[in-house]
Design a protein that fits this description.
Helix content is about 30%, strand content about 35%. It is an alpha+beta fold. It has 4 domains: about 90 residues, conserved putative lor/sdh protein from methanococcus maripaludis s2 fold (Beta Barrel), CATH 2.40.420.20; about 100 residues, Beta Barrel (Elongation Factor Tu (Ef-tu), domain 3), CATH 2.40.30.170; about 60 residues, OB fold (Dihydrolipoamide Acetyltransferase, E2P), CATH 2.40.50; about 90 residues. The protein has a 6-stranded antiparallel beta barrel with strand order 3-12-15-14-13-16. The chain has a 4-stranded antiparallel β-sheet with strand order 4-11-9-6, with no helix packed on it. A 4-stranded antiparallel β-sheet has the order 8-7-5-10, with no helix packed on it.
């Protein structure tokens, strides 16, 4: 009886190697397979997309009406009717100085004015009498009763009296000017609010001496008054965007004191020049006023602010979060449980959304968690879908 045929040794070895390879492949795709990468995705939808530009450096909240006041005359402070943080109305006294000396000057000037006016009255009455006397002598001279020499003397006396009257009138006017000056100096012993506002700063107290503020020499202000209804944002924009900016464009303002909120406003001014500062980018300043005056009044001048100017808006367009974009306008989509890469044609975009003109359709899922190296085309993923894009 013959024995069964046996396989060649090489065939046996090949079979073993094939079985081992198959086992490795099975293990590689089952037990040893890498865990799916967790990713966050957002479905492509329709909505509005804006083209915007933002400030290159932090902007600043400012008050359009702000007055830093100092008395024009020196003196001792005797009254401060309004304190820091209190409201004031236009024309209301906010600081008063001791008025005893300027009141005495005014009283003296008025006394001198009364004396000069009395002298003017006397001189002008004398001039009127001299003029009448001259007319009388002229009539007598015409009748040959008065000599020509005597008429000449009377005429000279009348002219001297007239000049004396004019000088007295000039002295009276000068004395009146002295009274007006003393009254003006007395009036300057008080500071009045130039507009309705709030006392922002007060750097003097009762009993202290305040130094006058001459027109040329800069003296620190003692009272700072601002109008909280005139708040606006001054923001530097990059010079490359200067051609896109114009008054009337809508914008949004964000301030640190109100995190997560954006206040609508409108561009009211674009500077007619580019600001060139050493070691800084060249910028053009814009001013934005908020739409809601109540919000403006609640914001503090000096606060930093970020602005976003809306250049164009499109409604009901296909869009994706801008965070889903990779370089070259590519995105990662989820196909079953794998990531695939696709190139899109983008349109309007800002920090939040990008318009998709082609390359995606509504409902497709794009990855927005792109901050890990393992998130790449071909990776197996576990999807967490965001409720909102």
């Amino acid at each position: 009886m013959s024995s069964p045929p046996t396989l060649p040794r090489w065939a046996t070895r090949g079979s073993l190697l094939l079985a081992l390879g198959l086992a490795i492949v099975v293990l590689r795709w089952t037990v040893l397979a890498p865990a799916p990468v967790p990713v966050r995705v957002v479905r492509v939808d329709r909505g509005h997309v804006e083209a915007t530009i933002s400030n290159s450096r932090a902007g600043t909240l400012k008050a359009r009406r702000r007055a830093k006041l100092s008395p024009a005359e020196g003196g001792i402070v005797v009254a401060i009717p309004k304190r820091r943080g209190e409201s004031v109305h236009a024309g209301e006294v906010v600081l008063a100085l001791d008025t005893r000396i300027p009141e005495a000057r005014l009283a003296l000037a008025r006394s001198e004015l009364a004396a000069v006016r009395a002298e003017r009255t006397r001189a002008c009455l004398a001039a009127e009498r001299a003029a009448r006397e001259r007319e009388r002598h002229r009539r007598l001279a015409a009748q040959g009763i008065v000599a020509a020499d005597q008429l000449d003397q009377v005429d000279s006396a009348a002219r001297v009296a007239a000049v004396t009257c004019e000088a007295a009138q000039a002295s009276a006017e000068r004395a009146q000017a002295a009274v007006d000056l003393a009254a003006r100096q007395l009036d300057q012993m008080v500071l009045r609010a130039p507009f309705d506002g709030v006392v922002a700063e007060l750097s003097i107290e009762l009993g202290e001496w305040t130094t006058p503020s001459p027109p040329v020499i800069q003296v620190p202000a003692v009272i700072d008054i601002l109008d909280p209804t005139s708040i606006y944002v001054s923001a530097p924009m990059d010079e490359v965007d200067a051609g896109k900016l114009r008054p009337g464009l809508p914008g949004r303002v964000a301030v640190d004191s109100h995190p997560g909120r954006h206040f609508p406003g409108r561009v009211v001014r674009v500077a007619p020049y580019v600001l060139d500062r050493e070691e800084q980018n060249r910028t053009v300043e814009i001013e934005i006023e908020l739409d809601d005056p109540a919000v403006s009044s609640s914001l503090l001048p000096g606060t930093s602010a970020d602005v976003e100017v809306v250049l164009e808006t499109r409604e009901a367009v296909v869009r994706i979060p801008t965070a889903a974009l990779l370089s070259g306008d590519t995105v990662l989509l989820v196909d079953d449980d794998r990531l695939v890469e696709r190139t899109i044609a983008g349109g309007l975009r800002n920090w939040d959304f990008t318009e998709v003109q082609s390359g995606l359709v509504e409902g497709e899922r794009v990855v927005v968690s792109l901050d890990r190296a393992e998130v790449r085309p071909g990776a197996r993923v576990r999807v967490h879908e965001d409720a909102e894009p």
